[in-house]
Write a structure and sequence with these properties.
The complex is a heterodimer of chains A (278) and B (272). Chain A is of the alpha/beta class and 278 residues long. In chain A, 35% of the residues lie in helices and 25% in strands. Chain A has a six-stranded mixed beta sheet, with helices on both faces. In chain A, helix 4 packs across helix 5 and helix 7 crosses helix 8. Chain A is globular, with a radius of gyration of 19 Å. Chain B has one domain: MetI-like (MetI-like fold, Orthogonal Bundle). Chain B is built from twelve helices and no strands. Classes of the chains: A alpha/beta (278), B mainly alpha (272). The complex binds adenosine-5'-diphosphate and magnesium ion. Adenosine-5'-diphosphate binds next to helix 2 of chain A.
């Protein structure tokens, strides 16, 4: 649900008309079992450009998922707001934002095709069109032949691609990817990352991507946001000035390894901090 | 043939052969059928040899011969109709109420553990001991029998639905919310399909227990229905007729179980 915002002091078109998602002073807190509140995100502000691939990287439990959920309207922030274009996010925005979750969130009783179709079902797209578009999306991720299989007959990598197909099928401008490769082994992850990049570079979507993996972050992104331990704050934003389209051999280039090393030193401290948090 | 191959591998085949049940390459189904046939045959032989004109026991052939006659008796038909009606009503109510409240309790985090403990305790009580209270409150007739059926059948449905609802994948719920689904969509597209196999499997137990409840009530108060008829037949010295009625009831119970089992298998085909 998007609420139109016609405030006169709206954003200046000259500096920010390129931006797609605005996160302003975002604050997210959760109630603990003992009754107190713990802040997952505090004073988090970030503008994401149209068509940008932006990665959030930070220690586990620092608040990355909370930021994504706030951007997609799945949780209500305790402070600040999120805008997509010129409208404030107050609830899920299925017409503009699609998700891929870490555990894929597939329906075990639906086939791969049915799992992709469900996104369109919820939008009341007629059955024939639904079929057609879902098949196309599956073909895009290279799963045309697995359309009739159930999730338990698919490998981890295939499930992940079904989830990506489902996110692509509704033609949303914004993709939120929450550790989409988190449940996969290193090799699969590398191959799928490369493949995902190939698909996404041709689609020009605005993407927020969450990962733990430094290499993946640098390889995929236009900008990488290094986050502090909980509560999530921005530690540094790193521009990845490596031209696109990218191919896996850039991973051994000087520029690439330099950025990766820098990120590592930023995150090492924070991860050590995070480890000692309750 | 395979024995030759086995011998080549050394010590292992001995162990493998030892754990094979039944031996002689017989399939489990075959084994079951043969066992049953042996029991029936032995029973018939014993009945012919020792139980001619017995007042308490009948052989299988006599029982089968008595079934058509028994089933065409209007009194028996009426009893069967009464019991079937009571059973169906009790089973329907146990199913609907059990699924509704089970889903509600399963979805409410705080209510789950306390209510499950309470229900498990109640489930373990011998309800037969409480039947006089049912009669006291509801009388001898239809309602006390139906309610007794419900109180027997509802526990497995409640407990099964609760457990299944608690196991619904929260990520799937989040995902449907992100795709624009509201409460009703979540219920229809996530909760119901997730819990269905478990619910139907609990219904198999519930059907047996509901029938037990209804028959127990009829046996105890002896007012109408198959239970009451069994009660009177048991002291009427017409064993073939008694056994024919018992066989009919058993066949009906097995049929219900088979139908539900069929649905259960169909509904859980997606499970690994
Ligand atoms: N539903 C919730 N209830 C209570 N605490 C939560 C909830 N979700 C997240 N948290 C807490 O908020 C912090 C940030 O969580 P999250 O945003 O999932 O971090 P990340 O995705 O970076 O691992 C964590 O410490 C986590 O324990
Ligand atoms: Mg997370």
């Amino acid at each position: 649900m998007l609420k139109n915002e016609n405030s006169p002091e709206g954003r200046q078109p000259t500096t920010e008309s390129e931006a797609r998602i605005f996160v302003e002073d975002l604050e997210v807190a959760y109630a603990t079992p003992s009754g107190s509140r713990v802040h997952a995100v505090v004073d988090f502000s970030l503008d994401i450009r149209r068509g940008e691939f932006l990665t959030l990287i930070g220690p586990s439990g620092c608040g990355k998922t909370s930021i994504l959920k706030a951007v997609g309207g799945l949780i209500t922030p305790d402070g600040g707001d999120v805008r997509i274009g010129d409208t404030i996010v107050t609830g899920p925005v299925p017409d503009q934002v699609a998700y891929v979750f870490q555990d894929f969130a597939l329906f075990p009783w639906r086939t791969a095709l049915g799992n992709v179709e469900v996104a369109l079902e919820l939008k009341k797209v007629p059955k024939a069109e639904r079929r057609e578009r879902a098949r196309e999306a599956l073909a895009t991720v290279g799963l045309a032949d697995a359309a009739d299989r159930h999730p338990h007959e698919l490998s981890g990598g295939m499930k992940q691609r079904v989830a990506v197909a489902r996110a692509l099928v509704s033609n949303c401008d914004v993709l939120l990817l929450d550790e989409p490769f988190g449940a996969l082994d290193e090799q699969t992850r590398l191959v799928l990352g490369t493949e995902l990049l190939r698909i996404l570079e041709s689609l020009g979507k605005t993407i927020i991507f969450v990962t733990h993996n430094l290499q993946e972050a640098v390889y995929l992104s236009d900008r990488v946001v290094a986050m502090s331990a909980r509560p999530a704050r921005i530690k540094e934003i790193i521009e990845v000035d490596i031209p696109r389209p990218r191919s896996p051999d850039i991973m051994v280039s000087e520029a690439f390894t330099e950025i990766q090393r820098h990120l590592f030193s930023l995150l090492y401290e924070e991860s050590a901090l995070a480890m000692n948090q309750p | 043939m395979s024995a030759v191959t086995f011998r080549r591998v050394g010590g292992e085949p001995q162990a493998r052969r030892a754990v094979r049940p039944g031996g002689a390459g017989m399939s489990p189904v075959m084994l079951r059928v043969l066992t049953l046939a042996a029991v029936v045959l032995g029973w018939e032989v014993l009945a012919r040899l020792y139980l001619q004109d017995s007042l308490f026991l009948a052989g299988p052939v006599a029982i089968v011969q008595a079934i058509p006659g028994t089933l065409s008796d209007p009194a028996v038909r009426e009893a069967l109709a009464i019991t079937a009606g009571e059973f169906l009503l009790a089973f329907a109510i146990a199913t609907i109420a059990g699924v509704l409240f089970g889903a509600l309790l399963g979805a409410t985090r705080r209510a789950f553990a306390p209510s499950r403990n309470l229900l498990q305790m109640a489930f373990s009580l011998p309800q037969v001991a409480l039947y006089p209270l049912f009669v006291l409150w509801l009388g001898f007739g239809f309602s006390s029998k139906v309610v007794f059926g419900i109180t027997h059948g509802i526990f497995p449905v409640l407990l099964g639905t609760m457990a299944a609802t608690k196991m619904v994948d929260p990520n799937l719920v989040t995902s449907v919310r992100a795709m624009g689904g509201g409460r009703r969509t979540i219920l229809r597209k996530v909760v119901l399909p997730s819990i269905l196999p478990e619910v139907v499997s609990s219904l198999r137990v519930a059907a047996a227990l509901t029938l037990l409840g209804v028959l127990l009530a009829e046996l105890m108060v002896s007012v109408g229905g198959v239970g009451a008829m069994l009660h009177s037949l048991s002291s009427s010295f017409a064993p073939a007729r008694l056994y024919a009625l018992i066989a009919t009831v058993c066949a009906a119970a097995i049929a219900v179980n088979l139908v539900l089992g069929f649905f259960e298998r169909r509904l859980s085909r997606w499970r690994p």
